[in-house]
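Researcher: Please predict.
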Amino acid sequence: MFSNDQLQALIEGEILGNAYPYNTKNEQEIEAHIRRLFYRINRIPNVVCEAEWDHFGSGYASFVEFFCYRKEDMTIVEEKNGLREAKTNGFIIDISRLAPVAIMGEDERYKKTNMETDEVVGGAFGTLLDGPNRLLFDPKFQRFAEQLKLALNEFDYRLLESGELNQPLPFQTKIPTIYRNPNQYKLMDAIFYWED
């Protein structure tokens, strides 16, 4: 997947890749490429894709996170006291800003909104970064997963698998991540990290 030197370069925020736009090392070009992928996914019939472009509001994320779901996979859990709680089953896709790779796994999200103003007042969601075991999904979502994989492939992103990412990091280093302690780093942590 990556050599130890390449993994260390990713940890230090270096951009790697031989194909456009990663070969330009230009952050704006890479961001534009990821945005084109985002728009491509949103053109899949009956699919909604939301993106976190702003590093989760603080710090630095080495990736852009998409949450993609089919409209039929959103259900209203409860409507009470002027609030509506909705549950959505979908996929998180983390697209690296530093190399042409991505990870994908299932997530279940909850959103609470004010029924009068439609303002979001609460919610809950997961992350793929708490462990490579999250990169699995229910076979009932197979067709949807294949549509997302096709879009990633069209934009030359390699989808990394949990088996390769679950390996311990083979060298000592410091990764700017809030998800794992230094003595527990996995290969995944060198590629996908968020420093708050």
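Model: The longest strand covers residues 83-96.
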